[in-house]
Automatic annotation (TrEMBL):
Keywords: Aminopeptidase, Hydrolase, Protease. The keyword Protease applies. Residues 29-57 are annotated as: Disordered. This is Aminopeptidase N domain protein. It comes from Mycobacterium kansasii. Its EC number is 3.4.11.2. GO terms for molecular function: alanyl aminopeptidase activity. It comes from the Bacteria. It is an enzyme of class 3 (hydrolase).
């Protein structure tokens, strides 16, 4: 069962009680079956823009 979300005030109170010096992230970049998620020859997914943003002036 998931815990309910905290209000902003509750989150501030909880954050005052704990401290974090470091953390570890495990990132799975496989396709879910152990193979690489995509190969360099695969086209980028449709949501991935390969264009550079327009320069701002």
């Amino acid at each position: 069962m998931a815990l309910p979300n905290l209000t902003r005030e509750q989150a501030i109170e909880r954050a005052a009680l704990i401290s974090v010096d470091s953390y570890q992230i495990n990132l799975d970049v496989t396709d879910g079956h152990g193979a690489p998620a995509n190969r360099p020859s695969d086209p980028p997914p449709p949501w991935c823009s390969t264009r550079s943003p327009a320069p701002t002036r």
